[in-house]
Amino acid sequence: MSYNAERRLLAFLLSLVPLLALPAAQADDTPAASPLGDPGAIRVLLAADLETTLSSQMNGTLGELKASLGQQVAKNALLAQLNCEEAQARAKVAVAELTMAKQNLDAKRNLRKLDAVGDLEVAMASTEVQKAEGARALAQAQSGYCQVQAPFAGRVAKVHVKPYQTVAAGTPLFDLVSDGALKVRLNVPSSLLPRLKPGLPLEVSILETGKSYGAHISAINSRVDAVAQTVELEARLDAEPPELIAGMSGTAHFPQAND
């Protein structure tokens, strides 16, 4: 090996020394035990009491959207309207067929009084009325699919579609999260399970606000994750701070459970 080649090899080996000297915590991407630097803290996530994705119940074309991202909406508020001409036409046909079936039944009953028809024909005419009433109810229900309404009061968390877009049945339209108190979701070591019970207080520290909030356990999962050796809990905040929104995260402490 030439002298210059030896020098290049030595320089390369020396460049690796700082990398080999890195501490183990920096050699991988494993996150710290706690985002707040406290190894005893348990990660938590804030979630809305109710949240859902509203989807289209029919094929159709949307009109102008009545709700936008982040907007607060009341229960039963109109969020979107689909073109209803076809559904409304089917409903009118169903109403007309029901009227005709009722008229036929009246005629059969009058003829029965004159012994011009038998009981079977009257019964069949009555069945046709029931069938037409079912068709009308179905058409009216399908007409109701043209309007997308909020099932509960809350805020629009995501809008999946654009105005005047043609959608198929089942297409997601809006994500909606409820107003009011937030839930705290967390997984704790299963070793704490004997000391946990509904109503047990805890302190929740939220990263986004840098503040701590009081809470209490509201639900304990009936099954332990055998692999992670944890159990899922839900807790309720003792107050409704306006600065907190679903999706924020942080850590929790159980003063009584850790004694």
From TrEMBL:
It comes from the Bacteria. One of its GO terms (cellular component) is efflux pump complex. Residues 1-27 form the signal peptide. InterPro entries: MdtA-like_BSH, RND_pump_MFP. Residues 53-175 form the Multidrug resistance protein MdtA-like barrel-sandwich hybrid domain. Keywords: Coiled coil, Signal. Pfam families: BSH_RND. One of its GO terms (molecular function) is efflux transmembrane transporter activity. SUPFAM superfamilies: HlyD-like secretion proteins. NCBIfam families: RND_mfp. Belongs to the membrane fusion protein (MFP) (TC 8.A.1) family. This is Efflux RND transporter periplasmic adaptor subunit. It comes from Metapseudomonas lalkuanensis.
